[in-house]
Amino acid sequence: MSPPPSPRTSLLAALAVILFAFFSASTTDAASLELQQGDHVVWIGNTFAERMQYFGEIESQLHARYPEHNLVVRNLAWSADTVSLRPRPKDFGDVHHYLSEVKADIILVCYGFNETWDYGEEEGIAQFEANLASFLGQVQSRNYNGESNPKVVLYSPLACEGNTVPDTPKRNRLLLLYTNTMQRVADSLGIPCVDLYSASRAIYQQDKKKKYTINGIHLTAEGYLKLAPAILSDKLFAPLPDGAPLEAIRTEVLEKNDTFFDWYRTVNSFYIHGDRKNPYGTVNFPLERNKLLQMTSLRDQRIWSAARGDKLPPEIDDSSTVKIPTTRPGKRGGTSPALSPIKERAKFEIAEGFQVELFASEEEFPELRNPVAIKFDAAGRLWVATMPSYPHALPGVKTNDQILILEDTDQDGKADKRTIFAENLYLPLGFEFGEDGIFLSQEPNLVFLRDTDDDGEADQKTILLHGFGSEDCHHAIHNFVWGPGGGLYMQESVFHHTQVETIYGPRRSKDNAIYRFDPRTHRLEIVSRLPPGGNPWGYAINRWGEHLYVARHNNASLINQPESGNVANANYGNSDTRNCGQEFISSRHWPDEFQGKVFTNQYKNFQGVLLHDWTENGTTYDHKRLGKVFEAHNKACIPVDLQLGPDGALYVADWYNPVLGHMQYSLRD
After folding, report:
1. Given 15, 63, 516, 584, which residue has the most CB atoms within 10 angstroms?
2. What is the 3-state secondary structure (H, E, C) of 290-328?
3. Residues near 591 by Cβ (< 8 Å), separated by ≥ 6?
4. H or E stretch at 285
5. pLDDT category of residue 545 using cuts at 50, 70 and 90
6. Closest residue by Cα to residue 414 from 477, 353, 341
7. How many helices (H) and strands (E) does the chain have?
């Protein structure tokens, strides 16, 4: 005779039964989806759906439930999307276009969160109901696969966890109201509706000390795993078999997701779909994009094999995909010679009273390629973001942009130690220290990296915000700088469409913006849309809290508070120049007459560093260009960032590339 179960065992068993029954009851009455061999299952919707592709748990469980079906799963979700508002890059194509591209058979639709703001809370319920019914009706009536109407499943928004979300009780009441509306619409159309609001709320209440979201609304990997029985309800999907090789499947799913994302959410879409696709984009990218789709299909096959428990070769064989021919630099604009650091330094014209010395180069540290941003930490170490993948990764070539830490351990004025803090990054345009880690641009996301075991290497990654623009990769969020109020300022330049889902509601902007993000409250503010002058670049804030940034990327710089109209404008250089990086002088290592002055980088028609002065004049400012610090007479020298170091010296990051410019050449030059 078996011993009676302990009270704890009985309680856990009861909870499991209750939760199972609860999840089942939370799905409106509908028959199983009865997935067919080779079905294409597609997610659309908001950040809940977009974010799951970075973890892979949900898709892995789906394949494990259908190991013989060879399902093709694609994620077309986009941060902050709603049923009626889905902004996209210029000439990108709408959701119906991409549902046809991926030949959708089963469409999993996730909306309702951002609508609680966009539709005006309770007042917009009727309009939301009408728009949702109209959109779902359109989806049901299409033949995306070329043969039949798709099956559709509707997912409600999650509940808010904890009390991080402003006025959480009110937001949850609204989310429940919108969830009930979604269930009514689904019932009227004969569509199953999964109530994730109730399912997530039940999970949060099980253990209030446990956190399943990063900010009250966006799930962690564990959160998706915990919610998986509701997302993939046994009422709609086949049950998850015991002993399924989930981790092996997940490894292949993440590789496939990354490859498909490079096709769907490609950076530089303005050169692929938009106004700059001619003359070069139409030559380079069609073949490359075709290769990405072929690579994605090969990764599908590896997922199917993993789901069946087959042994896979460790390396992915892409040899059957289309070959990309080697490109040669175009003649437009010409190129400059690539010189050694010593020979390059010999071509510098240095102003009297200044001295230029080499701190580190690729000769000593081969990883130090294309440095784009630099910062000093409290220990006096120089952190460098490198970006050799710029401007666009080649299909099949793994990106390995890095965050390096350079140290001068023997105090001889030259770096002699290199640590790789983070690698396998893609286009880390900007970063800033904070909260025992770094905030990092990884378009279209804002990411936080932390070293939890103090070995000098990042081992924890959190995607904080999704949905920043990436239409022109060097215009993505950059120039990170802390403001006096504790907010992290970031700039974004032209051509970009941004929509970020936050706990304060969706934030959307177009073309140019200055953002402020407060990691303590998770609040993202657009402090300036189309900031004066447009196309903001180099950013600096002085001790008085005055903001200085370059506008129109060439001849003007402005000093103001971004929220105000108090702007002073100045011509910063020669005609058709480019500025990138600015720094107020506040180090006592410099003479008194330099205090409060500004160093700025300039490239194109002038390569080097300039010195400027801004002085108050009533409610505005007067500007004076004081002269050169140094000028490089080889256009391969491209200064892009500068920082005053703990030793008082000005450190300059030289991008150094024989090809100067972006649209002046093929991106493959």
Report:
1. 63
2. HHHHHHHHHHHHHHHHHHCCCCCCCCCCCCCCCCCCCCC
3. none
4. helix 282-307
5. confident
6. 341
7. 12, 28
DSSP characters over 461-506: EEEEE-----SSGGGSSEEEEE-TTS-EEEEEEEEEEEEEEETTEE
Q: Going by DSSP bridges, is the β-strand pair 578-584/568-571 parallel, antiparallel, or unpaired?
A: unpaired
| CA neighbor of 527 nearest in space, from 479, 550, 561 | 561
Q: Could you give all domains of the chain from N- to C-terminal order, each with its CATH number?
A: 13-244 (3.40.50.1110), 262-325 (no CATH), 336-356+534-669 (no CATH)
DSSP alpha helix (H) spans, 41-195: 47-52, 57-65, 95-101, 115-118, 125-141, 168-189
DSSP-derived secondary structure letter, 213:
B
* Helix/strand/coil (H/E/C) assignment for every residue in 241-279: CCCCCHHHHHHHHHHHHHHHHHHHCCCCHHHCCCCCHHH
Strands across the sheet containing 431-434: 431-434, 437-442, 445-450, 460-465
- Compute the distance between CA of residue 23 and CA of residue 2 in angstroms, rounded to an integer: 31
CB within 8 A of 348, min separation 6: which ones? 356, 608, 630, 631, 632, 633
CB–CB of 302/309 below 8 Å? no
How many CA atoms does the CB half-sphere of 300 hold within 13 Å? 18
DSSP for 27-55 reads: BPS-------TT-EEEEEESHHHHHHTTT
Cα Dmax for the chain: 96
Q: Which residues contact 8 (CB under 8 A, 6 or more apart)?
A: none
Report d(CA 312, CA 307) in Å as an integer: 11
**DSSP per residue over 414-429, as a string?**
S--EEEEEEEEES---
Pairing of strands 106-110, 151-155: parallel
- DSSP for residue 594: G
Q: What confidence score (pLDDT) does residue 32 get?
A: 86
Q: How far, in Å, CA of 79 to CA of 409, rounded? A: 45
3-state secondary structure of 90: coil
Question: Which of 523-554 are b and which e, b meaning 16 or more Cβ less than 10 Å from the residue's Cβ?
Answer: ebbbbbeebbbebbbbbbbbeeebbbbbbbbb
Distances (CA, A) of 532 to 479, 517, 549, 558, 569: 17, 20, 10, 8, 9
Each residue of 13-72: pLDDT tens digit? 333 333 433 443 355 555 689 999 999 999 999 999 999 999 999 999 999 999 999 999
